[in-house]
């Protein structure tokens, strides 16, 4: 018997599985090569999907939020993760490199404008890209908003979320000596980049497990142990970005620059019980962004696979298709 049967129902809201009509690799400089694919209608409405993490990579399930007869869907693995190479590398890997990569993909595929669809870190990157290149963004569709602020990092890595999941938090925290627990991001950074593959993998799996355990509202508090290679890329990249505060000029940079996207329509789909990215940030963003439609989903957490999240994202993309095709 499935422990979380409602999670399985999420797939009922998605379009059927679809294979790419185009896939390959693209060199973007600095020794990095990205995996890029396209699926759906080659002449359809362009939409680019920005995955989470940083370091999460894209998956076949991400193709299924879009009507394949209507949308031309572009997915890619960001620098250092998934099928992009070099794997788990943080060299020449910053937010601004990723923004430049999105522009390179857009130019290579000869797309004038696209809808930008992103969740969690993908929502962060979507907002930063839109602020930087507002003329290239037709619409934003965001899920599980993360604004890359110190308050959010303190919540998740400073014990805030741990008050709700004390036993899960203890497993994550106690891997670090007590004298270093005042800065868990920094303490994990030392171990994720120590040069000892065994130590790096052990701490990468603990880092990934802490996040995975809190992703779903249906969680039992156990995130499972991710495969070492995946966990190492995910944890190293995420930690690298967090140590460097997202490579933004100052704390609160996204909210301070929201005026640059004020004319871009947007949909924000947010789980009411998101333990990783609490709803406050989505609400603050919607307050500062006149064209944002905030859809708070009851009985939902952070994960893309939550039934309420999945159904609302598909509904949003169908509504956008109707509007743009009218």
Summary keywords:
8-stranded mixed β-sheet; alpha/beta; 17% strand; disordered N terminus; Rossmann fold; globular; 326 residues; 37% helix; 2 domains
> How far from one another are the termini?
45 Å
Which strand order do you get reading across the main beta sheet? 1-2-4-3-5-6-7-8
Structural class, judged by helices and strands?
alpha/beta
Mean pLDDT rating: 95
Radius of gyration: 19 Å
- The CATH C-level name of the largest domain is Alpha Beta
Q: What form results from the Cα inertia axes? A: globular
Compressed to H and E, one letter per element, the order equals: HEEEEHEHEHHHHHHEHEH
CATH topology of the largest domain: Rossmann fold
Q: CATH homologous superfamily name of the largest domain?
A: Alpha/Beta hydrolase fold, catalytic domain
Query: Biggest β-sheet, characterized?
Result: 8 strands, mixed
Percent of residues in β-strands: 15-25%
**CATH architectural arrangement of the largest domain:** 3-Layer(aba) Sandwich
Helical content (DSSP H or I, runs of 4+): 25-40%
Unreliable spans:
1-7
Number of helices: 11
In total, the number of domains comes to 2
Q: Give me the count of strands.
A: 8
Question: Explain this structure to me?
Answer:
- Helices cover 37% and strands 17% of the residues.
- It is of the alpha/beta class.
- The chain folds into two domains: 223 residues, Rossmann fold (3-Layer(aba) Sandwich); 97 residues, no CATH class.
- It has an eight-stranded mixed beta sheet with strand order 1-2-4-3-5-6-7-8, sandwiched between helices.
- α6 packs across α8 and α7 crosses α8.
- It is globular and about 60 Å long.
- The N terminus is likely disordered.
